[in-house]
Amino acid sequence: MSDNVKRRDFLGMALGGVAAVGAVASLYAVKRTWDPLPSVVSAGFTTVDLSGLQEGHLSTVEWRGKPVYILKKQSGSQKVEGRDFEINGALYTVGIQICTHLGCIPGFDEKTQGFLCACHGGRFNASGVNQPGTPPPRPMEIPPFKIDGMKMVLGEEGAEYQALKKA
Ligand code: FES
């Protein structure tokens, strides 16, 4: 399957069941934030090379048909327990980029380092935690992952993932 086909599938998923106005905004948000990293997919696992990530710049990969964002947080950022983990002293965060309100794909604003869901105005911070007073009821889900050097294997439960679940 080509990248373009995969992207169209995502857009179909993102647009299904949302109102027309929200759909256009959502489409725009997806285009702005879609920035694939080098990744290899095999048997339900997606292996992503994190070495090229730039601070504060969101990247999105596909894992089992879902968009997963990965962010290297800006230096000086506060560590959010249960959401962020460290590799070589730098903070990273990962989540399934699907709004926990009604399933749209929130866009990431690099200026504010936060997510905005265009469908109903939901907001999440850089670590994927929902902002109280906006529609999403909980943080974006964290996919199982394993860190192996500067590689992330999505679909496998490693020590960093276990630690986040315990926090
Ligand atoms: S689907 Fe995201 S705010 Fe409603």
TrEMBL record:
<feature type="domain" description="Rieske">
    <location>
        <begin position="45"/>
        <end position="154"/>
    </location>
</feature>
<dbReference type="InterPro" id="IPR006311">
    <property type="entry name" value="TAT_signal"/>
</dbReference>
<dbReference type="Pfam" id="PF10399">
    <property type="entry name" value="UCR_Fe-S_N"/>
</dbReference>
<dbReference type="GO" id="GO:0046872">
    <property type="term" value="F:metal ion binding"/>
</dbReference>
<keyword id="KW-1015">Disulfide bond</keyword>
<keyword id="KW-0001">2Fe-2S</keyword>
<dbReference type="InterPro" id="IPR019470">
    <property type="entry name" value="Ubiq_cytC_Rdtase_Fe-S_su_TAT"/>
</dbReference>
<dbReference type="Pfam" id="PF00355">
    <property type="entry name" value="Rieske"/>
</dbReference>
<keyword id="KW-0411">Iron-sulfur</keyword>
<keyword id="KW-0500">Molybdenum</keyword>
<comment type="similarity">
    <text>Belongs to the Rieske iron-sulfur protein family.</text>
</comment>
<protein>
    <submittedName>
        <fullName>Ubiquinol-cytochrome c reductase iron-sulfur subunit</fullName>
    </submittedName>
</protein>
<dbReference type="InterPro" id="IPR036922">
    <property type="entry name" value="Rieske_2Fe-2S_sf"/>
</dbReference>
<keyword id="KW-0408">Iron</keyword>
<dbReference type="InterPro" id="IPR017941">
    <property type="entry name" value="Rieske_2Fe-2S"/>
</dbReference>
<dbReference type="InterPro" id="IPR019546">
    <property type="entry name" value="TAT_signal_bac_arc"/>
</dbReference>
<keyword id="KW-0479">Metal-binding</keyword>
<dbReference type="GO" id="GO:0051537">
    <property type="term" value="F:2 iron, 2 sulfur cluster binding"/>
</dbReference>
<dbReference type="InterPro" id="IPR014349">
    <property type="entry name" value="Rieske_Fe-S_prot"/>
</dbReference>
<dbReference type="GO" id="GO:0008121">
    <property type="term" value="F:quinol-cytochrome-c reductase activity"/>
</dbReference>
